[in-house]
Amino acid sequence: MATRIGIPRALAYYSFYPQWRTYLEELGMEVILSPPTTKDILDMGIRDTVTDACIPIKVFHGHVAALIGEVDWILIPRLVSIDGDATFCPKFLGLPDMIEASVQGAIPPLLTPRIDIRDGRFAPLRAWLQVAKILSVPRYRALVAYQKATQVGAYYESLLTHGILPEDAMAMVNKWWSSLQDNSLLALAKAKNSLLRTANSIESSTQRVRLAVVGYPYAIYDDYISCNLLASLRRLGVTVITPDMVPSKSRKAQAKRQPKYLFWHYSNQVIRATYHFFQEQMVDGVIHVTAFACGPDAMVGKLLELDCRKNNRMPFLSLCLDEHTGVAGVMTRIEAFVDMLVRRKEAQTS
Amino acid sequence: MKITFPRMGTSWIGLKALFEGLGHETVLPPPPSKHTLDLGTKYAPEFACLPFKVLLGSYLEALEMGADTIVSSGGVGPCRAGYYTQLQKRILREQLSYDVRVITFEPLNRNWRGTYLILKDLVEVGFGDFLGALWLTWQKLLALDALEKESHRIRPLERHIGTTSRVVKDAFADIDAAQSVDEVRARTAVRLEELRAIPQDLAREPLRVGVIGEIYVVLEPFVNQDVVETLGHMGVYVHRSIFLTDWTKDNAILDAFRIPGEMNIKRAAQPYLPEMVGGHGQNSIGETILYAKRGFDGVVQLAPFTCIPEIVAKSIIPKVSEDYNLPVLTLMLDEQTGKAGVSTRLEAFVDLLTMRRQRLRGETA
Ligand code: SF4
Ligand code: SF4
Q1: Which of B49, B74, B316 shows the shortest C-beta gap to A98?
Q2: Domain count of the fold of chain B
Q3: Which of A10, A114, A293, B64 is least surrounded by Cβ atoms within 10 Å, i.e. has the fewest?
Q4: Are A12 and A63 in contact (CB under 8 A)?
Q5: What does pTM read for this prediction?
Q6: C-beta A57 within 6 A of ligand 1
Q7: Could you write out the DSSP letters of every residue in A256-280?
Q8: pLDDT of A200 above 60
Q9: A296 is in which domain, residue-wise?
Q10: B313 lines ligand 2 (CB under 6 A)
Q11: Same domain, B161 and B210
């Protein structure tokens, strides 16, 4: 039987799952994903964390607990820095340690490659090769697996920048992967490029209200945490744009507008994407999705508020989520906000 | 320029001497109070950490008193402190329309040139006087720390509760008034003698408690509800893990030359938290372990509500506490925290430690 490796469906999952999964499968492992977030998962997370933790961290603990007994290992990379400018939130930095110290029950051993590009361009590769070593997979095989995973990751990321939401994009990656006759590296690169040429870019009809929903992927895209925010907005007839839909090059171009970079990777993404939306006049309003007592967001939220104000008083709504947030409450607030935007837009066009 | 600066514990005495020595008028914000915190809370983001709020409140008070320039320190993360002035500046200027200059000293190692430029602008005296001012400031800070350390040792032994606090308060005023390094040293010597002369009950064996956590709340008695003094008055010897001068040596100065400081603490933390998580998160773990090894009776962790590194530490401490059999009390401090609540929790903790000690002694006897 293949070794089973569990991946919690939370936090960095939304950014890296296709890549991680490809790598592990190419090493000959069986990858087991925890189920979508449910109340039970959240409750387990609440049980295992300190009350002061933010909801994404609680949910992550719950996903780990959900994998207990199902897998031989759990993959929890220690994401430190992937861009060299910033690190991840300190809670990411200490994530494997918090899990070790606080998840109840017999947690399987953790695989915790430490990803820190500041240690050199090849540091992430070395960290992943270490994982292969722990799993007793020969090095050459790991190198090929890593290359393939990188290709898949790039494909996934570009799907996101074409406006596809993570779960759909993952399904597309899946379908594409299993349809490949030949998944040698070369064939992979070719197939990916031709697919991308045919993908649609973000629809941007200017008639509809266009809304930037900015926040961290693990809050925006986890339908349980976000109380179905994205689906509800779409039902209200709004075009939703998220930071992940901005190509990383365009985000980077906005860095110069920050007098000092933020220290956290996802926070810079949020701010830079928002500046990009402003510059390209892509949106009519901004919703900031944030977790109760999130440390970085105390800074980010205020910056967004001040920046929206500076940008012609762009309407701004801050949506703060915790374990007590209910669907109805979120609905009321976004309905009012969207109504206001619709009226504003009508006034502007007439 | 009328300069104001962050107020944290006794450091204002040193900083005041510094800026005056550089040829500036300083505006000393009043000691942080309920009013300061209310002001800060009103304009700061809801989940900003407590130090951010108190400092913002302090700046507002100082601006009302006529300050036109704020001088503070920056940082590079991964915790929020390094971004404080960026955001405070925008709040003060954009939201509250103050015409204020905010000068931020970034860590030296990546910013020798920036620091030089700031200094060129800030120093209005000759190079000799500049060095003199730095030296005097450093001597004052050393004196303050020496006095405070001694007060921590003596307070649990004093026969009349409150004597130590009174003497040490006068001593601080003395250091503030001192004009030269010689004077600082002379006054320190006198005051140390005075502290040691306080009538003490040497037969007591105070419980020993380490105080760890985030630097601002550890150093500023207003926000920690006088934890150190309160414990001292309960007859507990408090070892505070952070003193400004040690911290400056270990971090700011060594760091300027890219030498990591406090290696023993970081090494101790390795098995539980091998990663730096900003602020004092990793230290909190390492120090707890070192206190356990040194036979302390307990540890009090002080953390501002929403403090990222301390939340990481708090998540791991129960495991450390269990493995080393050392009780740890975590106090999360926010604008609602009151003195009565803190005292009650400290009392209960001290009771627990007392009983635990008796039990342990009973076992070995
Ligand atoms: S960035 Fe905020 S929400 Fe994300 S882990 Fe850190 S504190 Fe939690
Ligand atoms: S250590 Fe904690 S309190 Fe201090 S700045 Fe960082 S998050 Fe805020």
Answers
A1: B316
A2: 3
A3: B64
A4: no
A5: 0.93
A6: yes
A7: GG-SS--SBHHHHHHHHHHHHHHHT
A8: no
A9: 206-349
A10: no
A11: no
